[in-house]
């Protein structure tokens, strides 16, 4: 399955003009600041913006084509929509809220079972509760379950964690990760939270003022120095690796990266071979011309690939090549000149901190 979308939508003071070709699997994040067009784009896909002109093809099926006068209404588009607020029916208990979505689908078209979704989202103990007795995280899990029980071919999620505090976000994120692993269902995920995007998204679309600035694998887009996202204080890259083993004496997990690189993490044991994502912030990478013996565990050979200015005249941003894997480092301009670094320079990248995104 793949998704091809082209939309033009004019509002007073804002125009959405996007052209997208997105993968038909995994999580695609629409990311950008408030007012960039993320929700407008999602509403166009859902058919909620009837004034939008353009085209939308999902898995070879045309849902909209303005030139041919074709517009499939929202209720005929095989999609689920999860809003910031779960929008549960307050007069129905959780079970009946779920059955509302399930019964909308003809028995022969049901691809997901009620029991499967209930177990997947961990809501077995909530079925008899009324929505008023649910926490924010529980309400959102029920809302996601109800959307899934319509057996959609595409799931749209509009900042589903925005209304939750940090504790509730931490509660629900593992369920979202499990959902993406176990269901062969493409997801369009709107967010302005970098950590959510880094943790969940396989593909990233960066929007600004209604236009697409970049679209591609998350690992590649986050490493681009020509994008404003690289200038943020929490700019960094996502690295994807596989568990090599665990040292019980020191509590360290060994993670293999592409290019035969390896990093050590303070983490509980995980099965060998398990995929794991980590995030390394540019501000947590220092550089040396020689390998140093220090308390920093992860010192990796790298080549300077690109150098770019930052918003501060005192700092520069470097993109490093770790044998095919990109890493960002933010250092002072003084250090850049003192080390005489330029594209092609060989360095040792010292990772002062590594965040496990799971």
Write the SSE topology.
Elements: E1 3-11, E2 14-22, E3 27-31, H1 38-46, E4 53-58, E5 61-65, E6 70-71, E7 79-82, H2 94-102, H3 114-120, H4 136-148, E8 154-158, H5 166-182, E9 187-191, H6 194-200, E10 203-208, E11 211-217, H7 218-221, E12 236-247, E13 252-257, E14 261-266, E15 275-281, E16 285-288, E17 298-309, E18 315-321, E19 326-332, H8 333-338, E20 346-351, E21 355-356
Parallel strand pairs: 3-9, 3-10, 7-8, 8-9
Antiparallel strand pairs: 1-2, 1-4, 4-5, 5-6, 10-11, 12-13, 12-15, 13-14, 15-21, 16-20, 17-18, 17-20, 18-19
Domain ABC transporter: 1-234
GO molecular function: ATP binding
Protein name: Molybdenum ABC transporter ATP-binding protein
Shape: globular
| Uncertain residue segments | none
How many alpha or pi helices? 8
Q: In percent terms, what proportion of residues is strand?
A: 35-45%
CA(first)-CA(last) distance: 27 Å
Mean pLDDT: 92
Strand line-up in the sheet with most strands? 7-8-9-3-10-11
Radius of gyration: 23 Å
The helix/strand class is: alpha+beta
In which range does the helix fraction lie? 10-25%
- According to DSSP, the number of beta strands is 21
Summarize the biggest pleated sheet. 6 strands, mixed
Please provide the ordered H/E string of secondary-structure elements: EEEHEEEEHHHEHEHEEHEEEEEEEEHEE
Domain Mop: 293-358
GO molecular function, one term: ATP binding
InterPro entries: AAA+_ATPase, ABC_transporter-like_ATP-bd, ABC_transporter-like_CS, Mo/tungstate-bd_C_term_dom, ModC_ABC_ATP-bd, Molybdenum_import_ModC, Mop_domain, P-loop_NTPase
Organism: Pseudomonas benzopyrenica
């Amino acid at each position: 399955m793949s998704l091809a979308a082209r939309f033009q939508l004019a509002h007073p003071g804002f125009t959405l003009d996007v052209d997208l070709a997105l993968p038909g699997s995994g999580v695609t994040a629409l990311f950008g600041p408030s007012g960039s067009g993320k929700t407008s784009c999602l509403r166009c896909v859902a058919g909620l913006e009837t004034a939008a002109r353009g085209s939308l093809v999902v898995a070879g099926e045309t849902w909209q084509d303005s030139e041919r006068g074709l517009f499939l209404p929202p209720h005929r588009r095989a999609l689920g929509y999860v809003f910031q607020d779960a929008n549960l029916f307050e007069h129905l208990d959780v079970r009946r809220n779920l059955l509302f979505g399930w019964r909308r689908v003809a028995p022969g078209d049901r691809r997901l079972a009620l029991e499967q979704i209930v177990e997947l989202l961990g809501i077995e103990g909530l079925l008899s509760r009324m929505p008023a007795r649910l926490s924010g995280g529980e309400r959102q899990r029920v809302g996601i379950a109800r959307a899934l029980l319509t057996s959609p071919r595409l799931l749209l999620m509009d900042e589903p964690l925005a209304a939750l505090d940090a504790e509730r976000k931490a509660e629900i994120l593992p369920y979202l990760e499990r959902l993406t692993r176990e269901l062969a269902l493409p997801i369009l995920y709107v967010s302005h939270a970098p950590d959510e995007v880094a943790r969940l998204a396989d593909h990233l679309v960066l929007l600004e003022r209604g236009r697409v600035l970049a679209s591609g694998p998350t690992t590649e887009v986050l490493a681009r120095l020509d994008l404003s996202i690289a200038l943020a204080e929490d700019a960094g890259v996502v690295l994807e690796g596989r568990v090599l083993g665990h040292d019980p004496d020191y509590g360290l997990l060994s993670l293999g990266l592409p290019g035969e690189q390896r990093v050590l993490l303070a983490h509980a044991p995980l099965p060998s071979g398990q995929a794991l994502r980590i995030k390394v912030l540019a501000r947590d990478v220092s550089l040396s011309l020689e390998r140093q013996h220090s308390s920093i565990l992860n010192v990796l050979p790298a080549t300077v690939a690109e150098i770019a200015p930052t918003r501060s005249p005192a700092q520069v941003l470097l993109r490093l090549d770790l044998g095919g894997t990109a890493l960002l480092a933010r250092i002072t301009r003084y250090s850049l000149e003192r080390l005489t670094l330029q594209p092609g320079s060989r360095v040792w990248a010292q990772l002062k901190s590594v965040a496990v995104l799971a």
